[in-house]
Amino acid sequence: MLSERKNFFKIDWILVLVYFFLICFGLANIISSSISGENISLLDFNTLYGKQFVFILISFAIIIISLTIEVKFYERFSSVFYLVCILFVLGLFLFGNRINGALSWYSFSGITLQPSEFMKVGVALAVAKYISDFQTNLKKSQDQIKIFLIIFLPILLIVLQNDTGTSIVFLSLFFVLYREGISQIYLFIAFVILTVSILTIKTSISSVLFLSIILLILNYFYQTRKSRSLIKSALILIFSLSISIITNYTYNNILKTHQKNYISVWLNLEKDPIKIKQMKRTILYNLNESEKAISSGGLSGKGYMEGTRTIGNFVPEQHSDYIFSSVGEEWGFLGSSFTIILYIILIIRIISLSEMQKNHFSRIYGYSVASIIFMHFMINIGMVLGVTPTIGIPLPFLSYGGSSLLAFTLLLFIFIRLDANRINEW
Length: 426
Description:
By secondary structure, the protein is mainly alpha-helical. The chain has helices spanning about 1-5, 15-35, 50-70, 70-75, 80-95, 115-130, 140-160, 165-170, 175-180, 185-200, 205-220, 225-255, 255-265, 275-280, 285-295, 310, 325-355, 360-385, 400-420; strands at about 95-100, 100-110, 110-115. It folds into two domains: about 1-180 and about 280-425, no CATH class; about 190-255. The chain has a three-stranded antiparallel β-sheet with strand order 1-2-3, with helices on one face.
């Protein structure tokens, strides 16, 4: 207890400084993207930036609480936190408020809360707790099934609430499982599923079947015609064909029109210039205006609060999911690059500190934090640039949103607290 108190302030100041710069820079860009000529007052809680300022103040309280709680508390009560988060997500089916088609919010007295954001903290803690248990062996199939259930249960619940974008983030935890020694066969399966799905959408089931047969025949002869190789090849063929059929049915019968259009543009399936132009005025309006805003920023940007598209509200949701387009227009390539570098520093620093942890729980939790932030960072910026499909997830610490900011603050500062205790670990 005494040693923990002595090391209370031995936190990693690089992570802290990057965090504070990102939230302050995010607030500045939220101000720029949400003002409409009025005088700026952070105490005006009727404005988006005024509300975000309140969220920042609340996040400071979360930081203090996170850093004062004993380290063992996080490990001891991680399962409880996970179950509480699951209950809050389940509660949305009864008491949730549907916003933009997603049943993801609790609303009361003008305040909204998105429990799926805090679910990321719960899953990260639960994954760290389960894998760090001395009885857990990821080489055993029963332990693999249990860890998959921990990850996939919230994914299923969030998908049922029509929030596919948030659910995808949890898949980043498979980076953690791979780092902790889970069989590489799962990476192979994931690669096959992704490749076959893309080929099916871009071509057809018959094309996938033909290509699979050719590859498996070549592999069979390369393996000197062993019977075991033939059985293995046949199983891979059946698996690939099954994935292709499921993908084709899902794409044509389950996905909504706007979801199929996003995938169509991402995979460059649409060739009709007239239809593409029409799509840019409708479902791709956000992306089209975002790309215009970023490209208009040039090298050094138009200047703070001088972005014509930002101030003119050309980009819908620019204060939240598309906040990076405001950075690109007003701060230019240099400002955008600096922002990306900060995220890279943040992620690499978390990974580096995780590698130094002596405590198994702290190390795995650190990997989980880095994976979740990386997935958000990669998808959000890729979405704004048109590199990844539009799925609507915030940019950590920059985007507007109380649930997102508070959850990511808690996620990060729990790790900072665990790392501060590294000197006391054995």
